[in-house]
Design brief:
Elements (H helix, E strand, L loop, with lengths): L12 E5 L6 H9 L6 E4 L3 H4 L8 H5 L2 E5 L6 E3 L13 E3 L2 E2 L4 E2 L4 H4 L6 E4 L4 H11 L6 E4 L10 H4 L1 H10 L4 E7 L16 E6 L3 H7 E2 L4 H13 L3 E9 L5 H15 L5 E8 L1 E2 L1 H10 L10 E3 L5 E3 L1 H17 L6 E3 L4 H8 L6 H10 L1
Parallel strand pairs: 1-2, 1-3, 3-8, 5-9, 9-10, 10-11, 11-13, 13-14, 14-18
Antiparallel strand pairs: 4-5, 6-8, 7-12, 15-17, 16-17
Bound molecules: iron/sulfur cluster (SF4).
């Protein structure tokens, strides 16, 4: 059956901020960790979250430290990838944790969290429920898709925290809020005995086996992710899939189409809530951090060009051709699956789908109800 993989979280130290030690979250986490991991109580956890000076890989070293602290800023924010330059999907981000125990070579957190690389779990996470209730109360008939998988994988810490159960119970009782749990794990144990009442979507980022093996360290295999999606579907959850980043390596199109066949053999197209696609994109700072941490990764050395938003992106004809091949394959599957592109301008959307995208708020509403 599904295994809980807390052994993947290999820690040298844990820091607990004053006032958090008695919290339900700290109690659960400290009980689940091996007893030999040293725990230090600190007045202010900010210093413990920073990079260790002199470490050869400060970001990697951050993934060996866990900080339990109060979040002092709002939990809810617009997706940081959103921009008026892109045809966006109206996604709202709920930050309940920061950084990720897996280690994908292309992960944008290597840049985004370079100054705060330690794992952070927020002891006051139930305060986020008040923010969500205020959002819902002011919604005036709108529906929102809210996700926890932006600054951390949504389920990677769940074997320590069990937060997913509280989240599912909260969202199950809210008609105009949909929770998206986005993951590359198969750690669905906690989800299987809570009833989501149709309000929770679990989404998997999928990559071909070749990308998984070269670049997605410590993640569940693509086959395991697909099997986990079938299990949560059977338990009453909605499912969605992200093909992001799409990477254009030799034979990529063949491998992605094979992956889609494997997915559709297990999950019927009419049961897929939506698909997203996004090409590999890296700022110069991220590209240099990723290449320095993963010098032998061939996926970081494809044909890319610096685009007008300051990111290196896969050479446009290669990117468009992959988008079109995948969109065509899903179209042939026999059921219309809502599909959107992440961080792409309207012009790319038109090339792939032959029409203009809806406004972000409209797409967000549609995906929340899909
Ligand atoms: S699973 Fe997601 S958050 Fe975790 S390292 Fe990979 S890309 Fe980053």
């Amino acid at each position: 059956m599904w295994t809980v993989k807390k052994e993947k979280i290999d820690l040298d130290s844990v820091f607990v901020e004053h006032g958090c030690a008695e919290s339900a979250l700290a109690t659960r986490v400290l009980r689940a960790l091996p007893p030999d991991v040293p725990v230090t109580h600190v007045a202010d956890a900010r210093e413990a979250s920073r990079p260790i000076s002199g470490a050869s890989d400060p970001f990697g070293a951050g993934k060996r430290r866990l900080v339990i602290a109060r979040r002092k800023t709002p939990f809810l924010m617009p997706c940081p990838a959103g921009s008026s330059k892109f045809a966006c999907c109206g996604y709202l981000v709920l930050t309940l944790a920061s950084n990720c125990p897996m280690d994908c070579s292309y992960c944008f957190l290597q840049e985004y969290l370079a100054d705060n690389p330690a794992f952070q779990l927020y002891a006051n996470y139930t305060d986020s429920f008040d923010e969500l209730d205020r959002l819902a109360a002011n919604a005036h008939g709108r529906s929102f898709r809210v996700g926890t998988g932006e600054l951390a994988d949504s389920l990677a810490f769940d074997s320590l925290t069990s937060i997913s159960r509280d989240l599912v119970e909260f969202f199950a009782a809210r008609e105009n809020l949909t929770l998206e749990l986005k993951t590359k794990t198969d750690e669905i144990e906690n989800l299987l005995d809570v009833d989501p009442r149709g309000r929770v979507l679990v989404s998997w980022t999928l990559s071909p086996d070749h990308v998984y093996r070269t670049s997605e360290h410590l993640t569940a295999s693509p086959a395991a992710r697909i099997a986990a999606s079938r299990a949560v579907l059977d338990a009453g959850y909605r499912v969605a899939f992200h093909f992001d980043p799409l990477i254009a390596y030799p034979n990529a199109e063949r491998d992605y189409l094979l992956l889609i066949d494997q997915l559709l053999d297990v999950v019927p197209p009419k049961q897929i809530s939506f698909i997203s696609m996004g090409g590999l994109r890296m700022t110069p700072r991220l590209r240099s951090a990723a290449r320095s941490r993963f010098p032998d990764d061939p996926m970081l050395c494809g044909e890319d060009v610096l685009s007008s938003d300051g990111r290196f992106r896969t050479f446009t004809p290669l990117r468009l051709s992959l988008y079109r091949a995948l969109a065509e394959r899903f179209k042939k599957a026999g059921a219309e699956i809502p599909t959107y592109l992440c961080m792409e301008p309207e012009s790319v959307h038109q090339h792939v789908f032959g029409g203009s995208p809806d406004r972000p708020a409209t797409i967000g509403q549609r995906l929340a109800r899909a």
